[in-house]
Amino acid sequence: MSVTGRCPYCGSPAPGEAGPDAADRGLEPLYQEVRRIREIAEARAADDDARRIAELTRQVQELRATVARLRGPGVVSLAAPADKAPGRRAG
């Protein structure tokens, strides 16, 4: 029994479902190669997304540090817990 490939673009069965001839057998390696290239491209895109998220996270941390530095030690951040804020009692 032969394995029928699928078009990597539309997913339709590759030609030769009834019985592969020489031309159809020649297309299967092409379909496999296109699938392999697509998988590589998707993996690279995922890596690029992870790098972008890491870079944006780093930038947010830098901005928070800059804001805290500019506010000075006497200003309480709205996000600070009540028990850590100067002049306040938790409870």
Secondary structure topology:
Layout: H1 22-71
List its traits.
mainly alpha, 1 helix, 55% helix
Folded structure, characterized:
This protein is an all-alpha fold and 91 residues long. 55% of the residues lie in helices and 0% in strands. The longest helix is centred in the middle third of the chain and has 50 residues.
Question: What is shown here, in short?
Answer:
The chain has one domain.
Poorly predicted ranges (pLDDT <50, ≥5 residues)? none
Q: How many DSSP helices?
A: 1
How far do the termini sit from each other? Answer: 74 Å
Q: Characterize the largest beta sheet: strand count, sense, and whether it forms a barrel.
A: none
Quaternary organization? single chain
Helix content: 40-55%
- Helix and strand run: H
> Helices and strands: which structural class?
mainly alpha
